[in-house]
Amino acid sequence: MTPETMKLLAAGIAMGLGAVGPGIGIGILGMGAMNALGRNPEARGAILTNMMIAIAMAEAVAIYALVIAIILIFVA
Amino acid sequence: MSEQKPEPAKKTGRKFGCLGCSFSLGVLIAIIAFLVFIVVSIAIGPIGNSIFKLHLPSWLNVPAPHVLLPAEVIFHIGPFAVTNSIITSWLTMVILVVLLGLVMGRARIVPGRAQSIIESAFDWLYNFCKEVAGPENGRRFFPIITTIIVFVLFNGWLGLLPGFGSFTKTEETVNFPGNTQIKEVNNELNLKLDTAPATMDALIAELNNNKPVAVNKQFREGNVKFVVLAVQNGQATSVAVEPQVPILRGSNTDINTPLALSLISFIFVIAMGIRNLGTGFFRPYTNVGRFMNGWKKLFTGLKKGWFTDLFFGFVDAFVSFIEVISLFFRLISLTFRLFGNMIGGEILVFVFFFLMFVTPIVIPFGLEILFGLIQALIFGFLTLVFATIASTATHEGEGH
Question: What is the chain A residue with the closest CA to B334?
Answer without folding.
Answer: A60
